[in-house]
Structure formats: C-alpha cells, structure tokens
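Hi there,

I know you've been waiting on this one. I reran it after we fixed the sequence typo, so this is the corrected version. Both the input and the resulting structure follow.
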Amino acid sequence: MIDFDNVAAIRKGEQDVVRVYKGRRMKWETSEPAVTLISIAVTSYPETLAYNQGEVLDLTGLAVTATYSDGSAADVTALCTTSPADGATLDAAGAQRITVSYTELGVTKTTGFDVTVIEVTRLASIAVTSFPAKLAYNQGEVLDLTGLAVTATYSDGSTADVTELCTTSPADGATLGASGTQTVTISYAEDGISKTTSLDVSVTAVTTLASIAVTALPDAVCYDVGDSFDPSGLRVTATYGDSSTAEVTGRCSVSVDGGASLA
C-alpha cells in the first residue's frame, strides 16, 4: 500500500496531479482546478547593486519566488533568465533596469530591479595643442621637441595636459638620418586605454663632399723664376656623395709650394 504521507506533490496540471512516490512519477485524475503561475517577485536582491561603468553584472545573492493560483509559492531563482544576463558588461552610466523572467507551462511572468552604474571618466583622444619650435631639419641633425604640448580629452569632456607622460617615435634627441617628410608619432596610455596622434617634420638632404678636381688649367702654366702664380683660367669642380658636381673655383684657396713667387 502506498504511504501517501510520503508522496511529494510536483505540480497540479490540467485536471490531474503528478506526484512522485519512491522515485516513480504517478498521476491521479482529479477534479481540482489547474494551478497556474500568477507572478514572480524578487525576494532577495543581489549583493551588488552599484557598479562602475565597464564592470560586469553580478547577480550573486538574487532570489526569485513564484506565486501560484492556489496560493502556494516556490523558489525559481535557478530557472529564471535576466536581461542583461549575469556577467554582462555594464557600459551605460545611470540607473539600469535588470529584467527577470520565468516561464512555466507556457505562462511567462517578469519582474525586475535597478542597479546604479557610475560613470567612469575614460581617455577619449589626444591632440597636439602646441607644435615644437623646430619643424625643419638638415639630414643628420637630432630631433628637438622643445615647445611640444599634448592635450588629452576624456569621455566627460574634460581635458588635461599630458605632454610629459607621452612617448614619441622617433624619440626626442634621435638622429634624423632619412631625408624628406618624417612623421613623429605621439602615444599616451591611461588605465589600459592607448591613444596616438602625430606631427610631421621636414628633413633636408645634405650632400657630402667626396672630392675636387682641376677641370681647366690656368692660362699660364710656364713661368720665369721669380714670377708670381696667376690662377686665371683655373677651374675646380667638386664631386659629392650623391654623384652631383659643382664648380667651386671661387671658393677654393690656392697655395704654391715654396711661397707665392716661383723661385
């Protein structure tokens, strides 16, 4: 004989009652009205109700109770879904509604509660607000960023001078070996957020003197003893590292072995 004192009711359905006896599901027909889900309610709030922007939702401590048409109640926390979900990132600042839903036998009920998300000021961008005093260089000179100013702008619209906290590539004091326009990249990082901006400097190529040669002899190449040297007609051409040439006669100095007179 079944000991009905040890039979646990599972749920009253459409015109029947399903019970469990010693691990076996048993169904009895009944004329009792069907028991339906009426509502759900938060009976214990999560431990954390205030967050900083960017933190994740933690529903630890949440408890939800369902109420039925026969006045009974049951804890359905583990069977509920939430929007946003547990573990979701809370990006929007302000009050945020957490909607809790539970469905049973085709009936869905919802409830909810609010959490507060505190706005966190985040780095949004950086910009050059004052350029270095020197923006033009000769090839081989070193970069001089004196006068550079960099300003950071944050998510709340505030700004700050971050010049001293920035890094640059190439670095201040680096030799500028390549000619042409060279981009100096400026970087700044704060709380794991990195932003960059840049400025351009111009580097003029410098040609290196490789050699000089006499390309035209003086008009007079024969002298009497005691005559003075006359460079008239002499032409001297310079050749540079880039293979270019130029006449440099007027910039040359001429010396005669033994002095200015041909003794």
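Quick highlight: The two ends are 149 Å apart (CA to CA).

Best,
R. S.
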